[in-house]
Amino acid sequence: MTRLLEKLQRSLSHEMRSYSSLNPLLPSEDHQIQSFSNGVSLEEGKQATSSLLRDTGQSSRSHRPPKEATTSHSSSSKGCLLLTTLVVFLFVTLSFAIATFLYYQTLPCTSEKCVMTAARLLKRVDQSVEPCDDFYQFACGGWINQSVNLKYDSWNTLYETQRTAHDQIVQAMHRINDGSYTLPTNDGERAAAKMYEQCMDTDTLEQTGLTLWERFVDELGGWMPELKNGFLEQEESFEIELDEDEKKRRRFEIEDIILSAFNYSVFPLFWAGVEVNYLDSKRHLITIYEQLPILLSPEKYHYDKELTPEMIFGKLEGPPVTRALQQVGEELAAVLGFDSTDEKVRMMIANMIYLEYQITIAGSTFYKEKKERYTVVQLRELQEIAPAINWHYFLSRLVGENLSFSEPIALKTGTQWIPILSSIVQKLKESRSGVAVLKNYVKWKTIMFHLAYATPKCKDGLLWMAVSLYSGAASQRKEFCVLRLSGIFPLSLPSILRKIDGIDHTEKNVKAVQNIADRIQEKYSEMVQSSNLFSDPETRKNVVEKVENMTKFIGYPDAMRSDFEMEKEAVRLHDSLFWSMVLGSSSVYKERLQRLRLPVNPRDWVDTRPAISVPAHNYERNLIQIPFDSLRLPYSDEHQMDFANYAGIGTIIGHEFTHAFDGQGKLHGPTGNLGVWWSQDSQRKFKTREQCFIKQYAGLMDSHDMNAAKEGLYENIADHVGLKVAYEVKI
Q1: Residue 229 in 3-state DSSP?
Q2: Ranges for the Peptidase M13 C-terminal domain (predicted)?
Q3: Whether residue 252 is found in the same domain as residue 401
Q4: For the chain: N or C, fewer Cβ within 10 A?
Q5: pTM
Q6: Same domain (yes/no): 122, 268
Q7: 163 C-beta neighbours (distance < 10 Å), count
Q8: CATH number assigned to the domain comprising residue 653
């Protein structure tokens, strides 16, 4: 501060000198110095002037200017002096203000941004612990003690941030429903709020009980109707002559029952829909991949010896999951009026579970190994490798057009699994009892999934524990409702949050994060260009192009800025929660089927819940998307200091960029197309570097579990690189 004031003083002296040389009313320093060097004082000069005037014989008065001129000259001098004083005063004041501002700018943390950012950081640390003793506890101890929710196994700050956003949406929906909400709303937002009210109205749901769900079961033709009407036994005991209509109905009965499940957005035996072509990311095509089991993950179904329906029936042998499913099936039968102790009922259920078991263990190893086996075949080829299903009939009905036999069909997890599925189905089709097992299995998956939208007063037994895998625990009802609504109202629901935050603030925040993403992309490109991992120029070129071509979706889709687009979602609301959920999710699936002949819109987000989801990287289109409910404190905010925004959302963006080079990411090129993009030598170097992460992570664990380290490898790499690139950008 002292130096700065000295500098200002020198500047003022210079200004005064400059002003003196220009103003004839003030003697210059040079003139004064010259007078003193001649040995003549100012007083002597005055006396000499007086003597000279007297010597000429003229009075001094006669040489004075006229009074008017003297007065004018005096006024002018005073005015200039006043102006000079004012200029100097203003200059000094302005200089002092600038000096003060610059001084206080160097003080630690006086701005609102800094104070609030520091407060949030201090709240999360545990200052009672020395960082060198336990850095994790020091850095996160405060947050662990104050924020961790033990109801959730994977609780983290991102989940906490999203939950806070969801709570704000919920509060707003309550006000929309009771009429106290003051902000303008559109039909889509009001429909979302109404469906949330339906979802949380447990009193009405308990009064309704299973009534609507039972009607739904009836619409599907009932579950295990063959055991009720005895027609199956008659048909197997006697040869029954079938009329032409019955023969026609039976010709596609398996395809029709699967289509009925798809109509309600449940996908038994396999999944089929319209997705981006992995080999040409600008086009859509029909895509098929294997189903996921009713319960748990596929590896839970493996058993050390051959399983049979009889073993499942007895509930004494087999993997725990099949024994649990047998109990669930029997309890479901009891709910629908069957005698759950009846051996025929129990055996039918055991055969359905055996079918589930066969399909699951025959599946590809894709979900375990995470290796791409994406294959595109023509419809006629699909019919040849999986003949048990009439694919032309099924897929034509699904997409609503008569498909050519040359129509390209993508098998997302390869061709390994679908011939096995076909042989299982074909064997069941050889008898009416087998067909009954197949049809009732499809119905079972359909009615089990939608049982999550029914709320009977009594929920005892294993059945309702299984249903809670779809609906969540009662304590998580609010989150279940928000997540289901976010799929049915992907624009309208997050739009409510956008209005809560303020549209101007939200747009500024999105723009700020977009700027962070742009800078991280630039830095990432610099890092890969200078990396020694890529031994050949072709691999380096492909990697650099992939980084530079990556699309970044931040916040929410463009359509969320349009009331017209959101109001289209309003029709998904129905008069009861059950049908709102069932038909709402169905309409979303059917809308996506309509993309078949359309080019991929480069502005389309890839998630069905784009603005209320999790940050993600999409391989086939080479893009990342950061949803709106993640663009919030403490991860990002325009009122938070930049370093905190880079540490938060910047690290997440860098994390998602890094997934472009994980096990699957390396198989996709600059536009997302599948292919060979890395040389063998570059892959080898990358693999060697991966081993360092595996060893380091395993060493941090008391168990030194190498398997856990391998499973989390690419997430750990993405965390590390994401933090590094965000830091490199900010410093």
Answers
A1: helix
A2: 619-728
A3: yes
A4: C
A5: 0.80
A6: no
A7: 17
A8: 3.40.390.10
Alpha-carbon gap, residue 466 to 472, rounded angstroms: 10
Q: At what angle do helices 503-530 and 713-730 cross, to 10 degrees?
A: 100
Q: With a cut of 80, say whether residue 21 has pLDDT above it.
A: no
**Tens digits of residue pLDDT in 159-193:** 888 889 999 999 999 999 999 999 999 999 999 99
| Euclidean distance between CA atoms 482 and 492, whole angstroms | 12
Residues 443 and 524 in one domain: no
Domains identified in the chain, total number: 3
pLDDT per residue as tens digits for the range 43-55: 333 333 333 233 3
User: How confident is the model over 298-315, as pLDDT tens digits?
Assistant: 888 888 888 999 999 999
Among 121, 149, 177, residue at a domain's last position = 149
- Domain assignment of residue 536, given as a range: 502-557+605-728
For residue 538, the one-letter residue type is: E
* Higher-scoring residue by pLDDT: 75, 297: 297
| Cα→Cα distances 178→70, 182, 197, 571, 573, Å | 85, 11, 10, 21, 18
Of the candidates 516, 551, 503, the one whose C-alpha atom is nearest the C-alpha of residue 650 is 516
In this structure, the answer to whether residues 513 and 619 fall within a common structural domain is: yes
Which of 630, 721, 624 shows the shortest CA–CA distance to 156?
A: 630
Q: What is the CATH number of the domain that holds 286?
A: 1.10.1380.10
Task: In whole angstroms, give the CA distance from residue 498 to residue 560.
Answer: 9
pLDDT tens for 178-187 read 999 999 999 9
What is the crossing angle of helices 492-501 and 187-200, to 10°? 100
Helix (H, G, I), strand (E, B) or coil at 636: coil
Is 588 among the domain residues?
Answer: no
Pick the closest to residue 172 from 630, 485, 585, 505 (CA basis).
485
pLDDT at 92: 61
Residue ranges with strand state E in 295-449: 375-378, 408-411
Using alpha carbons, select from 565, 570, 591 the residue that is nearest to residue 580.
Answer: 570
Is the sign of the CA dihedral 119, 125, 127, 130 positive or negative?
negative
Whether 525 maps to a domain, the answer reads yes
> Where do we find the tokens 């039976």?
250
Q: How many CA atoms lie within 13 A of 217 on its CB side?
A: 22
Asked if residue 645 and residue 522 are part of one domain, the reply reads yes
Tell me the C-alpha to C-alpha distance, in Å, between residue 617 and each of 79, 156, 172, 277, 606.
Answer: 73, 19, 31, 16, 10
Q: What is the DSSP letter of 553?
A: E
Domain shared by 513 and 410, yes or no? no
Q: Rounded to an integer, what distance in angstroms lies between the CA atom of residue 78 and that of residue 391?
A: 103
Q: Give the Å distances, CA to CA, from 687 to 139, 368, 538, 674, 681.
A: 32, 19, 18, 20, 10
State which of 426, 448, 470 marks the end of a domain: 448
Give the three-state DSSP class for 161: helix
Same domain, 140 and 228: no
Residue 38 has pLDDT above 70, yes or no: no
Sign of the torsion formed by the C-alpha atoms of 614, 615, 618 and 624: positive
| pLDDT exceeds cutoff 80 at 587 | yes
Query: How many Cβ atoms from other residues are within 10 Å of residue 146's Cβ?
Result: 9
Is 542 in contact with 672 (CB distance < 8 Å)? no
**Shared domain check, 348 and 413:** yes
Q: Order of strands across the sheet with 616-618?
A: 551-555, 623-627, 616-618
On whether residue 177 sits in a domain, the answer given is no
In the three-class reduction of DSSP (H, G, I as helix; E, B as strand; rest coil), residue 408 is classed as strand
